[in-house]
Amino acid sequence: MEIVIVGSGAREHSIGLALQKECRIDGIYFYPGNGATSKLGKNINFSNDREFVDFAIQENIGLVIIGPEAPLVEGLADSLRENGILTFGPSAKAARLEGSKAYMKDFAKRYDIPTARFIQTQDYAEAVNFIEDLNLPIVVKADGLCAGKGVVIAQSYEEAKLSAKEMLSGKSFGEAGKKIVVEEFLEGFELSVFAMCDGKDFIVLPPAQDHKRLQEGDKGPNTGGMGAYAPSPLANEMLIEKVKSNIIKPTLEGMEKDGNPFVGVLFCGIMVVKDEPYLLEFNVRFGDPECEVLMPLFKRGLLDCLLGCAKQDLKGVDYELEEGYCVGVVAASKDYPYKSCKKELIHIEKQGSEDSHISYAGVIKEGEELYASGGRILVAVGKGRSVKEATNKAYEALKGIEFYGMQFRKDIAYQALRLEENE
Ligand code: AMP
Ligand code: GLY
């Protein structure tokens, strides 16, 4: 079977790395891929998605895995399925769980899924009324996709009102902000739970935590993610059971009832408040860099899980996860997240070891050399029997790599390490 992985990040590279061991796969295409994915398979590109769908039909592609949210929201999974191509990823209608925060919040309300108290509105006066009703801080969110930047945690009523005004007028996020969600702030710890879904059934992967802030100690600006680890020892089994029964199950049932069965990976952004999980957001794809630490935790059966979801039949799918931990440290370019780098040679002394490897994101290949070109450049991934061992492996792998301006956090997995030390 030949498969296609859609996307160009370290997430897609990590899916390819995990699937290359599958003897049923004869070839992997990446659409469009990056400078490192071309070593694993073949990068392909098209001027539009119609051409890509035609390619998938002609080449008899056995499975398409869609990595990023944008093509999902735009309906790529629908076009593929309409043409009989097995696809891992939700329909455009189901992808609204990520594509529209107002839709997601209304959906949560309709199906009694615990989430922060909110209103969604296009009207400034209505937003102000609700803002004045809430305690500080106050959360203001643009409805549409804003590449992770559409959320303001306002520390004063003035800031909340101004954010609402600038979003609604189109000043801050264009069309994506012309509808907003205003909601109460939830105080607790965050957790990412990923469920691979076939529309009815699901498989929950080990809970992950990412580090969104640029600097150590969770300071500095928000980023796409500077590192991640899984499983997170902050989550116990009881909590995961609550996430399944209070959030994932009613979501799949609700989506099916509404005629939009969810096929693909449901990424639940959770805030745990006094042992109770609340839904902060849904994403309809794997997190990046969470995916990079989840893929290596599959001992076997990843392809069957992906195919089971795509065929809408997970029953009887056999898979096994590793017992240990996985930690990923992102190396970003000098001015990330403000500016991308153009082209810096990556000096690679060592590509990791038996228990570590590199997943590449913003890289281009020229001859045999890889060049950093972008914001997040690569993720060093380590595996181990403890969080400490996995963290050490990841940082060791990073030592073998260098490029001008490379920056990374030195404290990835610190909460888990602290917990482990105190055990
Ligand atoms: P979102 O894109 O909705 O997940 O929001 C991005 C980040 O903002 C989350 O990961 C949280 O850190 C924070 N956040 C969003 N909504 C809330 C909330 N209601 N209470 C506290 N923090 C929030
Ligand atoms: N790491 C967070 C995300 O992929 O949205």
Describe the structure.
This protein is an alpha+beta fold. Strand 7 and strand 8 (151-154) form a beta hairpin. The chain is globular and about 60 Å long. The model has no long low-confidence stretch (mean pLDDT 96). Bound molecules: adenosine monophosphate (AMP) and glycine. Residues 148, 210, 225, 283, 287-288, 290 line the site of glycine (GLY).
Topology:
Elements: E1 2-7, H1 10-19, E2 27-32, H2 37-40, E3 42-43, H3 49-58, E4 63-66, H4 69-73, H5 76-82, E5 87-88, H6 96-99, H7 101-110, E6 118-121, H8 124-133, E7 138-142, E8 151-154, H9 157-168, E9 180-184, E10 189-198, E11 202-204, E12 209-210, E13 213-215, E14 219-222, E15 227-230, H10 237-257, E16 263-273, E17 276-283, H11 290-294, E18 298-300, H12 302-310, E19 320-321, E20 325-332, E21 341-345, E22 347-348, E23 356-360, E24 363-366, E25 369-374, E26 376-384, H13 387-399, E27 401-402, H14 414-421
Parallel strand pairs: 1-2, 1-4, 2-3, 4-5
Antiparallel strand pairs: 6-9, 7-8, 7-9, 10-11, 10-16, 12-15, 13-14, 15-20, 16-17, 18-19, 20-26, 21-25, 22-27, 23-26, 24-25
Helix pairs in contact: 8-9
The protein binds adenosine monophosphate (AMP) and glycine (GLY).
Short précis:
This protein has 423 residues and is α+β, with helices and mostly antiparallel strands. Strands 3-2-1-4-5 form a 5-stranded parallel beta sheet, with helices on both faces. The chain has a 5-stranded antiparallel beta sheet with strand order 12-15-20-26-23. It has a 4-stranded antiparallel beta sheet with strand order 6-9-7-8, with helices on both faces.
